[in-house]
Amino acid sequence: MNPDSLLALYERIADAPDAVARLRRFILDLAVRGKLVPQDPADEPATELMTRITEEKTRLVKAGRIRRLQVDPVIPEEEPFITPSAWIWTRLGSVGDWGSGSTPPRGNPDFYGGDITWLKSGELNDNRQLSGSEETLTEYAVRNGAFRLNQPGDVLIAMYGATIGKLAILAEQAVTNQAVCGCTPLRGVSNQFLFLYLLSQRAQFRSASEGGAQPNISKVKIVWTPFPLPPLAEQHRIVAKVDELMALCDRLEAARAQRESTRDRLAAASLARLNAPDQATFIEHARFALDTLPALTIRSDQIKQLRQTILNLAVRGKLVAQNPDDEPADKLLERITGARSSLTDIRGIRRVKALPPITDAETKFELPDGWAWTRLGNLSQFVTSGSRDWAQYHSNEGAIFVRMGNLSKDHYHLRLDHVQRVKPPADGEGTRTRLEAGDILISITGDVGMLGLIPEGFGEAYINQHTAMVRPMPEMQGRYLPELFRSPFAQDQFNEPQRGIKNSFRLTDVTQFVVPLPPLPEQHRIVAKVDELMALCDRLEASLATTDSTRRRLLDALLHEALAPTEIADSIEPAKALAS
Residue ranges per domain, the chain? Predict the structure, then answer.
């Protein structure tokens, strides 16, 4: 496999979400299976190499230069894959001298601040020329502690916690703490090839780790790990080819980053034109954006930005055209105010009192003709929250108890996969918050601004004290207010008044919520246009998911064919045909 062949196969799937990472793992898989470079019959077989390694190990043990470590031979049932005929399976403990370090007592200043590099697991980052450390030890500490003095060229592997499997090759003499195991490969074993094999086994090491809060992989498990030993000359060829292909991965990664950056800039420029529109060119810009964004969109976060832009345009009066024949919003407000004054009091729920006028600082943009600024309390029959005594009424059946977990930040459709139920007494205080169709729910503690809209036919339901219930006036019981509440303009208001250690939003904050109010017919047109454009976003997301799935299948086919037990040249053709 050469870089040109890899590029030819990879071009079609380069934008798969994890393509480059999987390609790197794929290269390592090929390397350690003997499928990355051709075998040379002139190479000394690994059986003869292993004989010399064993002889050297015996000599070093007798000379007291390394410790004796006895591991059993690998039996066929333990071999995870088939290797070329010139290779041999052995164990990691048979091809090197392994040992870990320790941490000297912190209370003794004679141990720290010397000239000896002391490495901890967090300092290993797959560096093949590691030198220097955050802390150093004195020679006195090393002489009097349980340390293995690692030499330049030794391979280190982390054994604890989130760093399990992290690697390094030393460029200097160093010691480690107890979370790092070091290996001096015996003559005939390339430290670079050992590094690549350990890297290819990282997932297996992590899955084999044990422990609770800080899992670890023991030195015993490491040294008993089966190791496929190639002829020495082939080890060097493999390392050279891996380096070549990893450099190619670097270029693929850089090229992908450049493509995404370009797409991001183009998409951001298009959305920026929509969010700060010029009236004379807005229609042209909107048409251009909607035509080009599908081609520029390759990530779900970009679709989320498009959804937010649509809502931003909707509440600013930029999404649909104004109709001069519509009844102006100030007339709608007059009618709502008259209707509100005739409402009778509801037991336990205070009517919204006169609200303060809206200041210039609260109006973030200029409204179209026919619109008006107002506050949410002026559009509501009442605003309230649930009571605190619901725990005693929890039941396996009964009314739905809507909690914050049933609300959503991205939309106003209730999430009902996990529902708590309650059976309140008929005259209980909590019954004042019995929900009705059209009620809007807003979380007012913790993650403020999560939403819910009660649909028709929802049945008996209640809320707790963490949720505000807004019951709009009949004229406002459409979907304009719910769409407004999930817009960036609304979310900015939810975020502004949060105060205290625990984020909170008072009921007065809810009633004083600033609303850009369109004429009633325009509200209906806005909602219809939002539905139309959100459906477009849904199709974009579905298309993106389909494209990602196709790329993943092509990538899977490529990897499967390349790892099949046949010659590499034969395995590439089916994947190439699938990708064409």
Answer: 44-230, 254-316+529-578, 329-517
Judge: domain 44-230, CATH 2.40.160.60.
Answer: no
Q: Contact, 232 vs 87, CB < 8 A?
A: no
Give the pLDDT of residue 565: 45
Q: In what order do the strands lie in the sheet with 394-395?
A: 394-395, 420-422, 399-402, 461-463
CA–CA distance, 332 with 518 (Å, rounded to integer): 9
Answer whether residue 575 shows pLDDT above 70.
no
User: What ranges make up the beta strands (E) of 15-84?
Assistant: none
Q: How confident is the model at residue 340 (pLDDT cuts 50, 70, 90)?
A: confident
Contacts of 329 (CB under 8 A, 6+ apart): 370, 371, 372, 374, 517, 518, 519
The crossing angle, in degrees rounded to 10, of helices 300-315 and 488-495 is 90
Amino acid at 551: R
Q: Which amino acid is at 216?
A: N
Torsions phi, psi of 57, nearest 5?
Answer: -60, -45
Residue 578 has pLDDT above 50, yes or no: no
Domain pair 44-230 / 329-517, same fold: yes
pLDDT at 222 exceeding the cut of 90:
yes
**First-to-last CA distance in the chain?**
18
Element (H, E) at 128: strand 127-130
Say which DSSP state 160 is in.
B
Q: Of 523, 461, 514, nearest to 491 (Cα)? A: 514
What average pLDDT is seen over the chain? 84
| Dihedral-angle region of residue 365 (phi above 0 means left; psi in -120 to 50 means alpha; beta otherwise) | beta
Longest CA–CA separation in the chain, Å: 102
CATH topology of domain 329-517: Adenine-n6-DNA-methyltransferase TaqI; Chain A, domain 2 (3.90.220)
